[in-house]
Predict the structure.
Amino acid sequence: MLKQYKKITVGFVIQEFKRKDDTFVCEAQNFIAGDQVDYEDYFGDPLSPEKMQEAKIATKDECYQPFQMEQPILDYYYVQVWGLVEIQAEGPFATAEERDKALDDKKHEDGEAKHIYDTFELPKGTEINL
């Protein structure tokens, strides 16, 4: 008797990209399942409806499994520019909220100084060269 099998669901991936300077970074993605489903045995050989019936596989007995995709992991930064001469990036921060709090603290610390600040996100592990 067949003890396991593979279910292959054909569908579509929708990815959302956001412009970060001259690059588009994927910020989210979702899988939309289509109607086509194929079945294979453990070795990757197709299971026909007849073979599935022989193996007593009833797809109505399958537990629902959501199609959750791993979302892109981002690092969060802020950049500070002094007098259009010196640039310093701070980060990475684990979340946008953590970064924004650090930036608010930095602005408060700097007081009335006329610096330019901006925030950005990069895929985890991206090297920054300023």
Notes: Residues 74-123 form one domain. The mean pLDDT is 85. The chain has two domains: 6-61, 74-123. The chain has two helices and five strands.
